[in-house]
Write a structure and sequence with these properties.
single chain; Uridine Diphospho-n-acetylenolpyruvylglucosamine Reductase, domain 2; Alpha-Beta Plaits; five-stranded antiparallel beta sheet; 13 helices; globular; binds flavin-adenine dinucleotide
C-alpha cells in the first residue's frame, strides 16, 4: 500500500488491529491500513520519517485495550504496533524499571516483584502496555493511594513525527529543569510523539492487604462511608458497585458476592488490618448491612468478580463513561445523572473507583439510541464539568469524546492545538484523536 515501507521493516495485514476494546456502538470506523512491528527506537524513527515525508497518517497501537478508540486507524495509513518492543531492565539501586514501550503491565509488575520491588498502579487490563498506559495516563483501582501513571514516569524516550529522538527526564525523583515535556507527552494519547522507552519509578514491596466487602441499603450510605473513611485512612482501593453490576460480575466469574441484600456495595482494600478494623466501625456508623473481611482466597474471588463485570456488560452497553468528580459532589452528581438518564429513557449501570471519584457509568443499549444518545452524553459530561469534574478520569478523550472536549474546554483546546502543530506540523500522528 505504501511503496518503500517494506524496505524499512516487514509490513503486515492484521484485520483485528482495526479495533480496540471500545464498545462497538461508539467504536470509530476503521479505514484501510497496514501494520509494522518495529523492534527498536531506530526503526520507529525511520518509519516516522518515511511517513512524515509522504504525509501518511500513523496510528500507534500498544495492546489495544483502550476504551476511547485511541489506536483505531481511522484514515488510510500505517499502524505502528509496539508488541515487539519488550525489553525490560530493573535498576535496583535506583529503584526504577527501564522498559521498552511494548512491555505489558503484567511483565512490569512481575519483574519488579522478582527484584523485591513493586509497581503499585493497577489499571484493569494486565496486557496494557507501558506506552499505552503513559499515553492515556492510566489510573486503576489503586490510584486513590498510589496515584496514576504520571506519578511513576521519571523518564521518556520518544520519537517525533520527523524522526528526531527525544530523551526527557531520567532516573531522578525530582526535576525542575524547564517545562516538563515529559508530563506533556504523558497523557497526550499518541498525538505528539511515539513513546519508545520509559523509566518507571518502583516502590518497596506492597504490604499484606486486608479486604472488606460491605453491602449498604442505599448509594448515599455507601458514599458517606467512603468520604468518612478517607478522613481517617487512605485505602488502597475503594470501589463502588451497584447491585446489577455485582450480579453481572457473579454471572461471568461464577463467584458469589458476600450478600444478597443491599443495593449499593463497597469493595475496600487496605494495607493493614487495623485500617480495615477502623473502616468496619465507620461502615456500621453509616448503616452498613454487614461487613465481611475476606480471606486470601475470598480476596482473589472478589477481585475476579469485580474484574469480570466489564466482560459481562460489554455487548449490552453503548459506551463506558469515565467522568471524575470531586469526592464531596459524587452523591449529588449521581442523583442528577440518574434523573437525566430517566428523561432520555436510558438505563445506567454504575460502578467504579469511588475513592477517587472516577465513576464508570454504562448506558445500556436501547432501540433508537443513535438518535438521542449523543445528546444525553453531552448533557451528562456537561454536568460533570459543572460539578468541577472532568470528562475523562483515566480512559482519555480518544476519538469518542473529542466533540465534548472541544466545546467544554475551548481555551485549553486552542493552546493544545498550537502545541500539536509544533510537534507534528503535518498532523500525521494519531489524527482524529483529541482534535
Ligand atoms: C477490562 C479492561 C479494564 C480496564 N481498566 C482500566 C483501569 O482500571 N484504568 C485505566 O486507566 N484504564 C483501564 N482500561 C483501559 C486501557 O487498559 C488503558 O487505557 C491502557 O492504558 C491502554 O493500554 P494499551 O497498551 O492497550 O493501549 P492502546 O489501546 O493500544 O492505545 C491507547 C492509546 O495510547 C496510544 N499509544 C499506545 N502506545 C503508545 C506509544 N508507545 N506511544 C504513544 N502513544 C501510544 C494509542 O495510540 C492510543 O491513543 C481497561 C481496559 C479494559 C479492556
Amino acid at each position: 500500500m505504501f511503496k518503500g515501507l517494506e524496505e524499512i521493516c516487514e509490513v503486515y495485514k492484521i484485520e483485528s488491529y482495526a479495533y480496540d476494546e471500545t464498545p462497538t456502538p461508539v467504536r470509530p470506523k476503521p479505514a484501510d491500513f497496514v501494520v509494522v512491528k518495529p523492534k527498536n527506537t531506530l526503526e520507529v524513527s525511520k518509519i516516522l520519517k518515511f511517513a512524515n515525508e509522504r504525509k501518511i497518517p500513523v496510528f500507534i497501537r500498544g495492546s489495544g485495550t483502550g476504551l476511547s478508540g485511541g489506536c483505531v486507524p481511522t484514515r488510510k495509513g500505517i499502524v505502528i504496533s509496539t508488541e515487539r518492543m519488550r525489553e525490560i531492565e530493573i535498576d535496583i539501586a535506583n529503584r526504577v524499571a527501564i522498559c521498552q514501550a511494548g512491555v505489558t503491565l503484567d511483565e512490569l509488575s512481575r519483574s519488579a516483584e522478582k527484584h523485591g520491588l513493586s509497581f503499585p498502579p493497577r489499571p484493569g487490563a494486565e496486557n496494557a502496555t507501558v506506552g499505552g498506559m503513559i499515553a492515556t495516563n492510566a489510573g486503576g483501582v489503586r490510584a486513590l493511594k498510589f496515584g496514576v501513571m504520571r506519578n511513576y514516569v521519571l523518564g521518556i524516550e520518544a520519537v517525533l513525527p520527523n524522526g528526531t529522538i527525544l530523551n526527557l527526564g531520567g532516573k531522578t525523583l525530582k526535576n525542575s529543569s524547564g517545562y516538563s515535556l515529559l508530563h506533556l507527552i504523558t497523557g497526550s494519547e499518541g498525538t505528539l510523539a511515539v513513546i519508545t522507552k520509559a523509566t518507571i519509578r518502583l516502590l518497596p514491596p506492597m504490604k499484606e492487604m486486608a479486604m472488606l466487602a460491605i453491602p449498604f441499603r442505599s448509594t448515599e450510605d455507601a458514599l458517606n462511608f467512603a468520604i468518612d473513611t478517607s478522613m481517617h485512612v487512605t485505602p488502597m482501593a475503594m470501589e463502588f458497585l451497584e447491585k446489577r453490576a455485582v450480579e453481572i460480575g457473579e454471572k461471568v466469574s461464577g463467584k458469589r458476592w458476600v450478600s444478597r441484600e443491599g443495593s449499593a456495595h463497597i469493595l475496600a482494600i487496605f494495607e493493614q488490618e487495623k485500617e480495615a478494623e477502623l473502616a468496619s466501625e465507620i461502615a456500621f456508623n453509616h448503616q452498613a448491612i454487614d461487613v465481611f473481611l475476606a480471606s486470601p482466597r475470598e480476596q482473589r474471588d472478589l477481585l475476579e468478580l469485580r474484574g469480570k463485570i466489564y466482560v459481562g456488560l460489554k455487548d449490552k452497553i453503548i459506551e463506558i463513561l469515565d467522568v471524575c468528580i470531586p469526592p464531596a459532589k459524587i452523591s449529588e452528581y449521581l442523583r442528577i445523572s440518574e434523573k437525566i438518564a430517566e428523561k432520555y429513557g436510558i438505563e445506567l449501570i454504575t460502578y467504579g473507583h469511588l475513592g477517587d471519584g472516577n465513576l464508570h457509568q454504562h448506558p445500556l443499549l436501547y432501540d433508537g439510541w443513535e438518535k438521542t444518545y449523543q445528546k444525553f452524553k453531552k448533557e451528562l459530561l456537561k454536568l460533570a464539568v459543572e460539578f468541577g469534574g472532568v470528562i475523562s478520569g483515566e480512559h482519555g478523550i480518544g476519538v469518542i469524546k473529542r466533540n465534548e472536549f472541544r466545546e467544554f474546554y475551548p481555551e485549553q483546546f486552542r493552546l493544545m492545538l498550537e502545541i500539536k502543530k509544533l510537534f507534528d506540523p503535518n498532523f500525521i500522528l494519531n489524527p482524529d484523536r483529541i482534535f
